[in-house]
Amino acid sequence: MSAGFDKSEVVAREVEVRPIHPDERRRWDALMDERHCLGFRQFAGRGLRHVAEWRGHWLTLLGWQSGAVQVRSARPLADAGAGTCISGGRPLRGKPPPRRVNRAGQALRMAATSARRNDSCIGACHRSCLRRLDTPRAVKATAHQLTRLVHAMLSRGEECVAWEVADFETERRDRRIRHLQRQARHLNLALPTVAIR
């Protein structure tokens, strides 16, 4: 997207996927119209615009719109006659059609991976998942969390409320204390209350 740097220098760990700022919307729309194979006029309904950035250079553009979330795919109807491997409820012999690539899933997994170094609630949640799970499962869990966030924003028009990391840690600590108190009650024990400085 941006000129003035060598693409071979890009380090994947330094790439950050982030939402665009309001003053970057005109640039995002112009680049999408210029570079997209079908062109770009505007989103149908609400939309989210993200950019993958490396050291201030834009590498790629990501966009989601509410129309794509709410409309069921018409592809099964269009493809019903060609490339199917089932006839009369039974699978046919031969090579199955190639799997379709889920580009939204790839973008969300990239965003989840870059959230590891982010000082936001999503980053704190991802780091918390990494303590409990192996890396692929933690990335998948964070991508699922981002999916729910995007879906709520697009389908119901909810605003994205940015939590602070301190709020997340406080809620996580309170949840652990409540869990310990439940376990203590189950074992007929009493937990001492200690004031934390």
Key features of this structure:
alpha+beta, single chain, extended, 197 residues, 7 helices, three-stranded antiparallel β-sheet, two-stranded antiparallel sheet
Could you characterize the architecture of this molecule?
By secondary structure, this protein is an alpha+beta fold. The protein is built from 7 helices and 5 strands. The strands form 2 sheets. It has a 3-stranded antiparallel β-sheet, sandwiched between helices. A two-stranded antiparallel sheet has the order 4-5. The longest helix has 22 residues, at 165-186. The protein is extended and about 65 Å long.
Strand and helix map with partners:
Elements: E1 16-19, H1 25-35, E2 47-54, E3 57-65, H2 66-70, H3 75-78, E4 86-87, E5 90-91, H4 103-114, H5 121-132, H6 135-155, H7 165-186
Helix pairs in contact: 4-6, 5-6, 5-7
Strand order of the largest sheet: 1-2-3
Question: What's the N-to-C terminus distance?
Answer: 50 Å
Largest sheet: 3 strands, antiparallel
Query: What share of residues is helical?
Result: 40-55%
Q: Report the portion of residues in β strands.
A: 5-15%
Give the oligomeric state of the chains in this entry, treating copies of one chain as homo and distinct chains as hetero. single chain
Average pLDDT value? 78
Global outline: extended
Number of strands: 5
Count of alpha and pi helical runs: 7
**Structural classification:** alpha+beta
Order of helices and strands: EHEEHHEEHHHH
Rg, nearest Å: 23 Å
Low-pLDDT segments: 68-82
